[in-house]
Amino acid sequence: MNTLVARTLDGGYSCEPGEGRRVSFGRNHHDVHIPLGVDDRRVARECGELTFHDGLWRVRNTGKVPIRLGFRLVLPDGEPLPLGPGYSTLLVEGSPGRVHALELRVVGRDHAIPVARPNDQTVVPATWSLSPVERVLLTTLSQRYLLHEPEPRPLSARTAAASLAELQPDVNWTARRVEHIVTAVRTRLAAAGVPGLTREEVGEPVGDALKRNLIRELLKSATLTPVDLGLLRQDRHRVG
After folding, report:
1. Domain shared by 100 and 136, yes or no
2. Do 179 and 187 meet the contact criterion of CB atoms below 8 Å apart?
3. Is 120 among the domain residues?
4. Mean predicted lDDT score pLDDT of the chain
5. Are residues 28 and 100 in the same domain?
6. Which CA distances in Å does 128 have to 73, 113, 164, 218, 221?
7. Which domain of life, per UniProt (predicted)?
């Protein structure tokens, strides 16, 4: 139980649990347990460590650049964050256009190490049910993501309402109605266990974080795809 299995493009490592045990990762493959970004000078020689304490593996940032862990950031000089059982991925920003991934697995009680399953049927992600109104609204809101724009952001409620009013002139689209529908979908998905969709989770200032996290979930689950852009008509699917 709690065996740590790690893998990067540059190597792999496994470690049995033990109080105070430490596993380091970073660019200097001579001095760390897990090499990461060995050819990228933007990655610190040692950018982080995994330690076992009180029955949990924890990740701590020992470099200068924040490390992404799901929706959370592991900040330099911050408190270690615990890793739950199962898979986690740490992402370390490197040179422009490069992100280095450290894949982790904390083996549970069954001590089962994953085996290759090349012939198994592919598991299709479960999509979320959206009403026609929710789908056209959320497609409008997330169109910059669906169009693969660099560094996309959600449309504002006001801009989305204006676009929808042009698309559906017989419908009373307002910024308030847009916000109400988005909040209803977000609340529904949060109640189903999707993380990052409540103010308590993201903290203040909220900004666009809740909308961004909602859109990421809808894209990740393939609930929304570029095919949905057809709902916005070919000549109107982009808003400046």
Report:
1. no
2. no
3. no
4. 89
5. yes
6. 27, 31, 22, 7, 8
7. Bacteria
pLDDT at 240: 41
As a whole number of angstroms, the distance between CA 85 and CA 44 comes to 27
98 inside domain = yes
Give the pLDDT confidence score for residue 114 in this predicted structure.
Answer: 60
Q: Residue 161: pLDDT above 90?
A: yes
Q: Which domain holds residue 33?
A: 4-106
What DSSP letter does each residue of 4-64 carry, written as one string?
EEEEETTEEEEE---TT-EEEEES-TTTSSEE-STT-TTS-SS-EEEEEETTEEEEEE-SS
Give the predicted TM-score (pTM) of the model. Answer: 0.60
More confident residue, 101 or 202: 101
State the Cα–Cα distance between residues 102 and 37, nearest whole angstrom: 10
Q: Are residues 14 and 63 in the same domain?
A: yes
Q: Rounded to whole angstroms, how far apart are CA atoms 38 and 43?
A: 8
* Residue 6 burial (10 A CB sphere; 0-12, 13-18, 19+): buried
Tokens of 151: 């560094």
Residue 102 identity: L
What is the average pLDDT across 133-144?
96
Reported as a single tens digit per residue, the pLDDT across 115-136 is 677 888 777 668 999 999 999 9
Using the Cα atoms of residue 115, residue 15, residue 103 and residue 31 in order, give the sign of their dihedral. Answer: negative
